Model the fold of this input.
Amino acid sequence: MSFRIASSPHGHNQRSTSEMMRWVCYALVPGVLLHSYFFGSGIWFQILLAVVTAIAAEMACTVARERPAFSALRDNTAIVTAVLLAISIPSLAPWWIIVIGTLFAIVVVKHVYGGMGQNLFNPAMAGYVLLLVSFPVQMTNWLPVSAISEHSLNLWQTLHTILFEYTPAGYSVEQLRSGIDGVTMATPLDSIKTGLTQGYTLTEIYQRPEFSYFAGAGWQWINLGFFVGGLLLIQQRIISWHIPLGFLGGLCIPAFIAHIFAPDLMPGPIVHALSGATMLGAFFIATDPVSAATSNRGRVIFGLLIGFIIFVIRSWGGYPDAVAFAVLLANMCVPLIDRYTRPVVYGHGD
Amino acid sequence: MSDVQANKHNFSAKVIGHFPGGVHPPERKQPASSQPIRKLKLPQELILPVRQHIGPSGKVLVKVGERVDKGQRLTEAGLSQGLPLHAPTSGTIAAIEERPTAHASGLPEQAIVIHPDGEDRWGNKHALPDYHDVEISRLLELIQEAGIAGLGGAGFPTAQKLAQQKPLKHLIINGVECEPYIAADDRLMQEHADDIIAGIRILQYITRCDSVLLAIEDNKPEAIKAMAEAIDDNPQIQLKVVPTKYPSGGEKQLIELLTGHQVPSGKLPMDIGLLMQNVGTAYAVKRAIIHGEPLLERVVTLTGESLKQRGNVWALLGTPIQHLLDESGFTPEKKQRIIMGGPMMGFTLPITEVPVIKTTNCVLAPTEKELPSPGPELACIRCGACADACPATLQPQQLQWLAKAKDYESLEKHNLFDCIECGACAYVCPSEIPLVHYYRKAKAEVRNIAREKAKAEQARKRFEARQERLEREKEERLERHRKAAEERKKMQQEMQQEAQQKNSDEPGSKAEEGTEKPAGKSAAVAAAIARAKAKKAAQAAKESPEESNSAKGNES
Done:
C-alpha cells in the first residue's frame, strides 16, 4: 500500500485570507450603518455597484491572464477594495463614477501590476485619487448630513439620482446641497479650509451648523463607527495595532502641538481624528497588508508617515482631506522602509 | 502546577529569556502521555540501515545466515563520526541488501535484515556500575561503541558532541518535547526519572559541569513531578519549567529561553559554554555505561485518529513501521498520510516497509478531519503573520518572494540558512503557502550552486595553473632564443672585426659608423660586401624570436 506524500507542517490554523477579508467587511458595518443614517441610503447602491463591477473586472482579468477565475475571487480581496472605494466617495455620486474608479482599481492598479499581492499602491486609494483629479465636481458633492439638510431622499429618489444625476423631481445634487438660505453646505473639513482662507477663526467656524459636539456633525459619529470596527479587527488579530497607532500618532501629535501655538488657526487633534476619512484610513485603508510595510517597526513608521502627510496637506495643502494622497505617498516609501527596518535575525545580534 | 510548585524540590519555574514568535497548535498529547509505554511483540524481521545517523558507515562484520546475539555488533564504528550498529535482538542475518529507508524520499540504502529467533538472548555485556574511577576518554569510547546518537532531533553522535570540550557554563537537558502529539520523552520521564538523572550524572562527570538545567514544558505536570522527585535535593540540577509554545524545544530557542543568550549564527552552543542533550539520550547513556547495553530500542509515540490503540511503545531499532501500525489497530482512510515525526516537522512516508531508526520519536497516522490537508496556495498578501510567528526573526514573506524569484544571492543575505524549518510560518499563513517547502528547495539549490561554484573555482585554478605553466615555458623559450641570437651576433661581430682588421689599412671605413669616404675601389667593394653580410646576419638574428613567438601562439 502506498501513502500520500505531503510537505510539513501538516495542519494549519484555520484562518484563511478569504476569512480575514470577510472579517474586514464585517468590521465596516458599524461605520457604514452610521454613514447611511447620516447621508442616506446612497452608500448601499454605491457598494452594490462597486462590488458587482469589481467581481466582473476581477473575473475578466484573471481569465485574460489565464488564471483560474473563481479561485481568484475566493480570496474576497476585490470585494474589500470595492467596498472601501464605495464608502470613500460621495454617496450620491453618479453611477459611472464608482464604476470607473473600481475598474481602474482592479484592472490597472491591481492586475496590471501582477494581481493579488503584487500591487505597489493601495487599489482603493489609487482609484479614489484618479476620480478626485478627473471628476473633482462629482467627487466633492457631499450632501450635508440629513439632520441639517433641507432634503431627505427615499430609496427610489436616491437610486434615481445615482442613475440619472437628478432626483425624480428634477433637483440636481448641487441643489440638494443648498441650505435654507440657498448657501451650499460643505463638509466640515471644507468649511475649515475655506473659512480659514476667508479670514474666519476656528471659533467662528465651529458655530456653523456643520459642527456639533467634538467635530463635524455626523462625520464624528461615522469616524467613531469605523474606530469601533477597527478595534474589532485588532481584537480579532486581523490587523496589528502598529499602523493605526502610527497613523493616529502621526496626525494627532503634530495637530496637538500646532493647536497649542495657534488655537484659532489650527484644528486640534480631536477634530482631525474625527473628521473626513481619518478612522477609515487608519484602520481599514492604511492596514492593507499588500501595500504596507511588513515588519512591525516598519508599520509604525509607515503609519506615522501617513498621519503626518495628512496633517501637512490638511493644514497647508490644496485639498481639505488627504488620506488617499498620504496613503499613496507612503506606499511609495514602503520598499525603503522595509529595507531599513529589517529585524535582526537570531544569532546575528551582538 | 501549583501542587508541583509547593513541592520542596529544587525547582525554578522562572525562565530568564524569551524567544520571539512561536505558535500554539493543538497539543493532542493526551492519549500517548497518559498510558504506560507498551512492549511490542517481536516483528517478523528487523531492518537496520547500515548508515542511520550523521557520519559515514562502518564495515559490515556479519555474513548472511550467521546467528547473532542481542547487542552483538554488526558493523565497525567506521571513521571519525561513525557509529557501530548492533543486533536489537537475537536471531539470524537473513539478508544484507538494499531496503527503502525512513526518509522522505524512501530511497533504498544498504541494510542488514535480521529474522528474530524469539529468544531475545543477550551476548556479553560490559556493565560498569561505578564509572567514577574510569577515564573520561574511555567513557566516551563506551558511549560511541554503544551506538548512541542524539535521540531528540538530528541524530548527531553523542560521544562526538560530548568530546568537543570547552568549559561549560550549563549542561542543558531537553525534555521540552514541544511538538504536538509526541509524548515519548514525556512518558520516559514519568517512568524512568531516576535512570534519566543517573544518565545526567554521567554526562556531568564527562563534561565536568556542575550546573544542569533540565527543561520541561508546563503541559507535562506528571513528568515535572516525577523529575522533581528524582532530582530530590541535588543542588546541581535545576528544573526549569518553560511555558508551552512551539518550538521552545528547538535547541536555539531553548537556549534563548533559559539563558537569554543567542547562539551566534554559524557557531555551536559549545561556543557560548552550553551543551544540550535530550532526556532520551541521557537515558540511553545510563543504559550504556551502567548496564553495558548498546542503544537497541527507543520510545516511539504511535498516534493519530487512524489508529485505534494510541500510545507509546518500546520499539526495537529496525522494526518496520507497518508492524507498529498493525499492533495499534490501524484502519487507513482514503489517501491516508503516515507521518514520521510530529505534525510540524515530520515527513510523510510513501511506504511503511521502512524501519524505526534512532531519531524516530513518533509515527502519526492522522485522519483528514483531524489534520486537514492544505487548500490551494493563494497569493501572498504580505500580512506578516509568518514574520510574527518566526522564532528566528526571519522575514518569511520576503524569503518566499526571493525563493520564487530564484534570487539565491538575496536569499543568503536575508539569512535563509538561519531558518530551522520549524514550520510555524506555514502553519499561520492565511494564503496556505507551503513556505517551508520553498525554503527547503531554495536551500538545496543554494547548496548546489555552492558546489558548482567550488567546482568552477577548481577548474579556474587548474586553468590558471596551466596558463602560468605555458607562460613560463614561453618565457624560457624566448630566453633561449635571445641567448642564441646574442651568440650569433657576437660571432658575426667577431667575423666583422676580422674582416675589418683585414681592411684596416683602408682609412675611415668603419662599418659601424656607416660613413663612407672615397677610397680605393677594390677595398670599397670588399667593405660593402662585408657590411651587407653583417646586416643580413643581424636581421636573421632579430627575426628568429618573432617566428618562434607566432608559432607558439598557434600552439596554445
Remarks:
- The longest strand of chain A covers residues 211-212.
- The mean pLDDT of chain A is 88.
- The radius of gyration of chain A is 21 Å.
- Chain A touches chain B through 43 residues (CB under 8 Å).
